[in-house]
Structures are given as structure tokens and as C-alpha cells.
Amino acid sequence: MILEILDTYEKMSDRAAEIFKESVNRNPEIVLGLPTGSSPVGMYKRICDDYKRGELDLSQTTTFNLDEYIGLPPEHEQSYHHFMATHLFNCVNLRPENIHLPHASAEKKQVACEEYEQKIQKAGAIDLQILGIGRNGHIGFNEPGNPFESRTHVVKLHQETREANARFFDSLKEVPEYSITMGIKTIMRSKRILLLATGEKKAEAVKKTLYGPISPEFPASVLQLDPDCRILIDKAAGKSLEGDTRYLEA
Ligand code: GLP
């Protein structure tokens, strides 16, 4: 793993957007895996600004989102369809047919999961997968205990995840109980992985991701198996590293 510690959330977002832009400019037909949550919001803002300045062309680019809640229609304000439209899709020139999110409102969820997995394979694998992380180590919505071999599947959200995400809803009971997420195996098949973590609340999760035992009990620990996985954090998220510089880029 390669660790980069940036001073602030703003600088982390600058760096993430820079990696995004370089990757797209190098290969305009790139296949991207995209996250939701508050961590990537700054990155998306900068990507939109880059596009407006004419520094980015996403017309040949394909995207696959990590996950989507079951039970929220795509137009619901807290659905990830809505999040992505607001923060990225409505402000850049991605073609609608090249944008993919799990079809969580499909009647046959299992079929929707298999179709999503097939679409990713047909696109020829994800070139750059960007991730956030939950405090319990979840990536996408792969909760603790989820096998490393998993592909796109339906997941029951853990109570702590629902509680963490309740800040976006009027009350906890409105937070969906299930979602569809890419599996750990789907994520790990990506050619490059970039994880973003910010703020003191993520400090323990960052430490376990880097140095904890590799175990499905802490899903992000699987990233230790990918020597090229790049982790961008701000200083606050690095608080528990106590000067451990093993993975710091020279
Ligand atoms: C949700 C998403 C994850 C994301 C996590 C962290 O649970 N499904 O993909 O990484 O939130 O979100 P935040 O960046 O808001 O802390």
C-alpha cells in the first residue's frame, strides 16, 4: 500500500481530483469505480470545475458505482443515484449509457446483482476504483463478516452503518436496511484502487486498514493484499498512526 497524508480535507480532495484527471487524460476510455459518502464530495467538486475549465473530457469514460440502497427510488434525495447526479453526473459530459449503478429497485435483486457483475466484466474490469471507508471498515457496503470472495450482492446493513448514515436522513428509521453492493472480489479485481479517508472519526479505521490483521471482520484490511493500493488521508485521519511511516510514499 502507498500512503499519502495531506494537511487538510481540501488538499486531500485536490490530490484525489488530480489523480482522477491524470487517469482520464491518459486513457479517456477508462472504466471508473465510484464511491458516495461525504469523503469524495470535495473531489467531485474539483472534477466538475476541471470539466468547466475544459481540462477534462469524460465523453468516452464509463463509470460503475459501488452501491445503492434498496427501498429508495432513484429520485429520492438520499439515493446514491441522486447523490451522483447532484455531485458529478449533472455537471460533466459522461454519456448516460456509460453510467452504471446497481439496479436496487429491480424486483429480482439476485438477477440485478448478476447483471451488474456481468456489465463490469463486459467493460473489461475497472481501471481505477475509488473508495471511501466506513468506521467499521466497510468498503462499498461490504460489512464486517462479508467474505472476501463476494461479488455484487444484497447486504443487510449493520446497525452502526445505519446510525452513521442517519445524519443524511430525518431519522434512523428512514435509513434503509438493505443495499446492493459490489463485492470485495469485484473491488479487488480493479486494476488500481484509491481509498479516501478524512477526519478524526476515521483514524482508527485507517490504522486497522494499514496495519490490522487481514480479516473479513475488518473488510478494508483486504487492501493490504494490493501493494499498489493508494490511500489518501488528511492529518486528522492519520491521528492514530503515531508516526508509523511504513507505507508513506518517499
Ligand atoms: C457509505 C457508503 C460507503 C462510504 C461510507 C463512508 O456507507 N456506502 O461507500 O465509504 O458511507 O462515508 P463518509 O465518507 O460519509 O464517511
Describe this structure as you would to a colleague.
There is one protein chain. The chain is α/β, with parallel strands linked by helices and about 250 residues long. It has helices at about 10-25, 40-50, 80-85, 110-120, 160-165, 185-190, 205-210, and strands at about 1-5, 30-35, 60-65, 65-70, 100, 130, 155, 180, 190-195, 230-235. The protein has a single domain (about 1-235), classed as Rossmann fold (3-Layer(aba) Sandwich). Helix content is about 30%, strand content about 15%. The chain has a 7-stranded parallel beta sheet, covered by helices on one side. A 3-stranded antiparallel beta sheet has the order 4-8-7, covered by helices on one side. Helix 2 links the parallel strand 2 (about 30-35) and strand 3 (about 60-65). Helix 1 packs across helix 2 (about 40-50). It is globular, with a radius of gyration of 17 Å. 2-amino-2-deoxy-6-O-phosphono-alpha-D-glucopyranose binds near residues 66 and 133.
